[in-house]
Structure prediction request, 157 residues.
Amino acid sequence: MVLVRDIMSREVLKISESATVAELTSILTRHRITGLPVLDSKGKLVGVVSEFDVIDRRGKNVGDIMSREPITISPDAPVGEAARLFVTHRIRRVPVVDGEKLIGIVSRSDIVQFFATRQWQCSECGFTDRGFEAPETCPSCGSPAEKFTLSQAPPGM
Prediction:
């Protein structure tokens, strides 16, 4: 099973709730990203802010427009759980926290990159499959999930 810690970005751009909206838009455009985790003056995660918040809400500071009570995930959660959060809540990113400490971020593009670069391969017959977990049994030779290993996918596959 692939965990969030296996695919998350560890170097996280973040912003203070006291930063101006102008500072926020500068960071979003300069880094070509769509949102950021928001930290308070003590470094605690207090929200997330996105392009949507800039467009939809009024305020001078990030704290005025951010979404409070962010949806977060543990680094030990299965990647499939992150995918369900993206779909259920229609969000693009989830801060990864260990207790109250922000340690990373996982985005939809991290999951897409996982599918583009990884595959499960049966050690008995060579059958390959993509997914968050190995198939329960190999559809080609019937081997159990334990016979599958996660490997690098060939480019363009």
In short: The mean pLDDT is 93. Residues 21-31 form the longest helix (11 residues). The chain is about 30% helix and 25% strand.
